[in-house]
Each structure stands twice: as structure tokens, then as C-alpha cells.
User: Fold this.
Amino acid sequence: MLSLAGLSEAPKAVLVGGPSGGFLPPGELDAPIEPASLAERGAVWGSGTVVVADARTCIVDMASLMTRYLNDEACGKTIPCRIGLRRLAEIAERFTDGRPRPTDAQLVDDLASDTRDGALCALESTATNPLLSGMRYFMPEFEDHIIRGHCPAGVCQPLRVAAGATR
Ligand code: SF4
Assistant:
């Protein structure tokens, strides 16, 4: 269990496990922080780091950033990883840029499972976590970007910024 007691404001999400970890909503933090339980919830212990995101954080933007980083880090030896992760990073960028295609959400699911299945190493077997966990727990925020063309946190600048956004 991960205690977030003492924070000055309620967290929106916690990225557990570093760049290839998963975004968990606060309600998921009561479960044990151990490998099997984390894997069930779409995260890993990974680097052991925990990043707490507040309401000003755009989960779509953060998931896109992590996916781009992991794509940059991949060595390129394995074709499903080389192609799949690059395509996932491009799709995530389309979400934040306000250029989604109608099939993109489904494509993320299909590509992520192919990419994971073809993985040769730990990087790739976990690299789809940020995007998949983001879509699993924060789908309304993804739908805001994909369907309604706005970023509720006001982070993704090419999109229309929601009224009252803090940035
Ligand atoms: S799965 Fe691992 S070994 Fe294969 S390309 Fe990706 S990073 Fe390299």
C-alpha cells in the first residue's frame, strides 16, 4: 500500500515504476505494492520511483512523453518493438496535438499487444504501460482530447483549453 498522507492537495494520479510504469488513480493505491498486484493494475515496480501528478497534470501528455522517451531508449534490434513503439509514440503525439484519427484508440490496443508480445527485453515488455494504464484509468481525459478536441488541464496547447484551466 502506498500512503500519500501529508500531500497539500489530492493527487490525480501516481506514476508507479518510472517511465515504463503505470498511472494509477488514488483508489488503486490501497492494494499491495508488490509485482503481481502491480502488474494486475497495469504498473510495475520498475525503477522504484513514484511520481505524483496533481490536477494540473495532463495524463495524455505525460503518457505521450513517457512513450516517446521509451521509443528513444529502445535499441531497435527487435522489429515489433522498433516499429510498434514508434507508431505508439506517433499516435500519442496525435492525441496531444489534436490530430487523432478515428481508429487511433483501437490501434493503441492492437499495437500495444503486438509490441509487448514481440518483446525481447524488459524495456519493451513494459513500454506500453504508460499509454495503456492512462487509457484504462483516465479514459475520459483521453476522450476529451480525441473526441472533443480539448485538453482539460490546459497543457496540450494545440488543443482548445478548457474553461478554468490553470495554465
Ligand atoms: S525489445 Fe528490447 S532488445 Fe528488442 S528492440 Fe526493443 S529494446 Fe531492443
